[in-house]
Amino acid sequence: MTTKPLQSRHPQEEPRVSAQPHPNQFALLRQRRFAPFFWTQFLGAANDNVFKFAFTMLVTYRIEVAWLPPELAGLVIGAVFILPFLLFSATSGQLADKYDKARLAQLVKSLEIAIMVAAMVGLHLQWPSLLLGCIFGLGLHSTLFGPVKYAYLPQHLDEREITGGNGMVEMGTFVAILLGNVVGGVLIALPDGWWLTGAEAVAWTALTLAVIGRAVAQRIPPTPSTSPNLVINWNPVTETWRNLRLAHGNLVVFRSLLGISWMWFFGAVFLGQFPSFAKDVLHGDEHVASLLLVVFSVGVGLGSLMCETFSRRHVEIGLVPLGAIGMSVFAADLWWAASQVPASDRLGLGAFLGVGANWRVLADLFALSFSAGLYSVPMYALIQLRSPASHRARIIAANNILNAIFMIVSAVGAGMLLKAGFSIPQVFGLLALANALVAAYVFLLVPEYLLRFVAWVLSHFIYRFRVQGDEHIPAQGPAILACNHVSFIDAVLLMAASPRPIRFLMDHRIFQVPVLGWLFRLAKAIPVAPRGEDPAAYEAALAAADQVLAEGDLLGIFPEGGITRDGQLQPFKGGIAKILERRAVPVVPMALTNLWGSFFSRVEGGTAMVKPLRRGLFNQVGLKIGPAMAAGEVTPQTVQTSVARLLDPTSSMGA
After folding, report:
1. Which of 58, 30, 177, 33 is nearest to 125 (CA)?
2. Mean pLDDT, rounded, for 370-381
3. CA-based Rg of the chain, rounded to a whole angstrom?
4. Is residue 560 within 8 Å of residue 591, measured between CB atoms?
């Protein structure tokens, strides 16, 4: 596995606006660097869905179109909307890398106004072919805005804000989709005696949203080009292939793209089956179908928002396996719960909610969509931060292409299963199984997700883990993290505290510990033996450590050379000086506190892990991190002194 530091900015990328401390992601809505962008994308997503849903209802209930029968209307309209993502994503990614993203957003919103003017004509004349052309235009509008949407955030938000910012965007998108569908459905159903017909109300609403969106977009702050000398390749086929190869250059990023696309595959099955699921399985009317959409959208939105809380305002990819587990578990339970729903006559919303078995269905739907929010937001943040700034928009364009392909395959696959005689609940059950298999495969290919999940669980459910001074961990570039060694899970706790992956230099004997040894091998920790015991292995370990730093990554070491047997700080050995002789990098002192005496530390005759829960669950442990030390001032003694100060309860260093 190749791991790179959380994205260092491209030299041409403008510095991010300095972030003032704020309590949560909602504070971003008061700042110009985020608020105009957020409302621009919110209004665009809402408008797309107002018009799409209204048009679908129009050709389903109001007008007859020989070439667009009602039973195929939703499928055809959805396919036409997705088509531009396949055709033009590669081009839109290049444009977003080459030009100012704020200016591009403004031009795209101007295009939206033109599309909505054409839609007014189509709705007035009830001209379905023109309206379908407008659907294609809105798909093009979304395609052009997509790379701008996700490449914009890393230029204005720092690492501590990117998860919250993405959570807000994902929440806003799903709320906008929900509101757009509701408004579009209500407006198109207005009775003919109203002062505006339903079609006219939709037309004026859509145009108004487009104009407001364009006005808000004018407030988006300048976001300079990250690749101004890029020569545009207008061939979508060759550029699509080039973008996919570009994304594949960083396997962690590419496999994260596949992970996000799988989430859209997963979600598209549910979204596409809600009407039939409500009618044929739950025996509900159209209001029940709308309720399913509401529950799903709220679940994804809340899951996205909670990512910042669960991750302590870092990019916490350990949430991805948690989300994947929830998606499978609750999709499987939805299959079982839906299979138990009793037969009945068609139920209205009130009658539906009066059936106890239906509440389990709604709870499962909410939980699996909440899990999907936890799953997707950290992946988006990882892609944004680890993609080179000069290519970021094109990599996001590759993501949009993959998303579109996966959604198309999802629709075709679900249709084939239903045609083969599978019921909708059975399709959900098969999807739960497939999700579990895909997740296991992805997490074994990219162990970093699994490792961070273990670290997240340990620091949230075994201990109450408090970190002080984590701003001293460099956001980019190589550094050595030097920490005292108290227990067998010290490295796991450091993983939980760091926003970046860490390669550890560890005593070779720890690899013999069951489970933990496998975990550290998965993390590609570097085994080191004492020089007197195995000189060749000692030199090989130093060479491997130097290679980690040469690649710009973080190296974690425990200079005591072994786990303390009495809870006291032991003398630091000279390995850290040997590493710095080869490559001068900053050294960040760290101190684990209150971990001595826990299950994983050596007590009672020098043994560890002999009495489970001897301190109970959720006991507080801590990590203090001090300011980085320049290589020139580092000796084993100076680092030990810095760590000792952090351990001193009267010291405020690192707080």
Report:
1. 58
2. 89
3. 27
4. no
Q: How far is Cα 505 from Cα 540, in angstroms, rounded to an integer? A: 11
Nearest to 329 by CA among 248, 413, 237, 439: 439
Cβ-proximal residues to 334 (8 Å cutoff; 6+ apart), any chain: 361, 364, 365, 368, 425, 428, 432
* pLDDT value of residue 621: 86
Residues 6+ apart with CB under 8 A from 535: none
Give the integer Cα–Cα distance in Å for 56 and 59. Answer: 6
- Mapping DSSP onto H, E and C, the string for 422-484 reads CCHHHHHHHHHHHHHHHHHHHHHHCHHHHHHHHHHHHHHHHEEEEEECHHHCCCCCCEEEEEC
Whether the pLDDT of residue 238 is over 80: the answer is yes
- 212: which DSSP letter? H
The CA-atom distances, in angstroms, between 477 and each of 4, 152, 154 are 10, 23, 17
Cα–Cα dist 436/328, whole Å: 6
Tell me what the pLDDT averaged over the chain comes to. 85
CA 317 to chain centre: 8
| DSSP code, position 511 | G
Measured in degrees and rounded to the nearest 5, phi and psi for residue 467 equal -110, 130
Pairing state between β 619-625 and 587-593: antiparallel
CB 163 within 8 A of CB 305: no
- DSSP state letter for 222: P
d(CA 269, CA 274): 9
CA dihedral sign, ordered 92, 96, 99, 100: positive
Say which amino acid occupies 349: L
Tokens coding 65: 């179109």
Residue 473's Cα: distance from chain center in Å? Answer: 22
Q: How many alpha carbons fall within 13 Å on the CB side of residue 324?
A: 24
| Separation between Cα atoms, residue 140 and residue 119, nearest integer Å | 15
CA-CA-CA-CA torsion sign (361, 362, 366, 369): positive
Could you report the per-residue pLDDT of 297-324, keeping only the tens digit for each? Answer: 899 989 988 888 777 666 777 788 889 9
Helix then strand count (H, E) for the chain reads 20, 7
Q: What is the DSSP string of 35-83?
A: HHHHHHHHHHHHHHHHHHHHHHHIIIII---TTS-HHHHHHHHHHHHHH
HSE-CB of 111 using CA atoms within 13 angstroms = 20
Which stretches of 569-629 are assigned E, i.e. beta strand?
587-593, 619-625
How far apart are alpha carbons 387 and 381 in whole angstroms? 10
Give the per-residue pLDDT at 286.
73
Which strand (E) or helix (H) includes residue 542?
helix 535-550
Integer Cα distance of 147 and 144 in angstroms: 7
Tokens representing 102?
Answer: 């704020």
Say which amino acid occupies 90.
A
Residue 650 has a CB neighbour count (10 Å cut-off) of: 5
Which two three-digit tokens encode residue 77? 């309209």
CB 35 within 8 A of CB 42: no
pLDDT tens digits, one per residue of 438-453: 888 877 777 777 788 8
